[in-house]
Amino acid sequence: MKKSIITVVGKDKVGIIAKVCTYLAESHINILDISQTLVQDFFNMMMIVDIKDMEKPFETTVEELNELGKEIGVNIRIQHEEIFNQMHRI
Amino acid sequence: MINLFEVNETNKMIDQENLDVRTITLGINLLDCADSDLEKLNEKIYHKITTTAKDLVKVGKEIETQYGIPIVNKRISITPISLVAHFDNEEAYISIAKTLDKAAKEVGVNFIGGFSALVSKGMTKSDRMLINSIPKALSTTERVCSSVNVGSTKTGINMDAVKLIGSIVKETATLTKDDDSIGCAKFVVFCNAPDDNPFMAGAFHGVTEYDAVINVGVSGPGVVKKALETVRHADFGVLCETIKKTAFKITRVGMLVAREASHRLDIPFGIIDLSLAPTPAIGDSIADILEEIGVEYAGAPGTTAALALLNDQVKKGGAMASSYVGGLSGAFIPVSEDQGMINATLAGALNIEKLEAMSCVCSVGLDMVAIPGNTKETTIAGIIADEMAIGMINQKTTAVRIIPVIGKDVGDQAEFGGLLGYAPIMPVNQFSCDRFINRGGRIPAPIHSYKN
Q1: Ranges for the ACT domain (chain A) (predicted)?
Q2: Does the pLDDT of residue B327 top 80, yes or no?
Q3: B8 chain-A contacts, CB cut-off 8 A
Q4: Is the ipTM of this complex over 0.95?
């Protein structure tokens, strides 16, 4: 398993999760966990995903998710989980 | 398990508070390139640098995208050239500087540091030739940085070198006068220079180091400032605790990058330099932190104490996050690279004397300070000697990167561009130190250097 974190932040609207999940399915990225909140119309989602079967290079996924985000009008990023583990765990 | 709050906190630090890893510096040993034939030497140096560092920039960028953390600079430090090359003419050293410049461009790093000499006790012929060639070397190259270590707690201060450097600084300024004397921004004078400093312009690969090594400099003044905003009215205990926790988080990010870079390049990891280094960007300033701690402007009474506590807490927090801490490790207080420091200077709160006092409690010293172009060589040497003495007596590293901006005077501004920013010209004490500087010789090591 190779875990990464996807965050989606932006104004709420219909279909954000659907679009992101479709992209992930097509890219062979498995979703392990989703948590999501709405703060005053602001959509805030975090996904823990497994990128072990992903065929394209990580850099391409970063770019494509960026593009997808622009399409839906939200901010999407994917990062290796290590940065969060390192920063918040002793 | 990672939670949403932590993920958001990290990303907010990166997006809004300028959290970054300031630099990955690849140190390369060039001692095995030594050759009495200049052409062969140049060839060997070029080959060694371009092969050892060929993947540095690529790997840096990979780490950046995969973790989403910006790595601002990828740089190279090399063995001080005065140890590698021994020639009896300055032209030879200038040609080496050009080789370094070419190699840096080839591998895509923005600076290469190590056009340096270590002369804390005495100067060899090669040291002297290298120092003499510095003005031309820095004015005819783009990416080469130079430094000279002129003193240490163990040896005292080489005053002959200090005097010589006074005129070298002036000459460098003159040769680059069309660009606001920017050559001087690429030159640092040190006392107690560390062997493993990843920060330019003073970086070099010391003789105590591995064949090649990865050093990382972390930063994040914006993050500290933001964290302190939440404890604005709290006492010093809470204030220190907040800085410590933030420094821990920043350093862990640096540690992650260092480990990854070292692993992917298959080059041993050296040290993390626990520093807060500003940029001219708004919200990325050390002066802003000092003001958040409670002084109206950097330079106001209380500033030295605020800086001392900031520096100490950064080290305490960072030391828990990484076992291998080195370099300069402390807050950098350059003038031109920090918008808050520029504002403080313009407001009249900050002068050279206060900066000198502040350098007693933090890393480096007089950094990126612009002074009138007509300042005498001996006066520049005197300013350097003062700062070196602080380092020597207090067993700490001190440095001077001072820029006499030719053709400009107090009230004018020098523009350096990019990360170097701009600086208001600071007034310099007009009284003479000619007789002091012209004595020559060496200031002996202080009594507490005789520890055994």
Answers
A1: 5-79
A2: yes
A3: 7, 9, 44, 46
A4: no
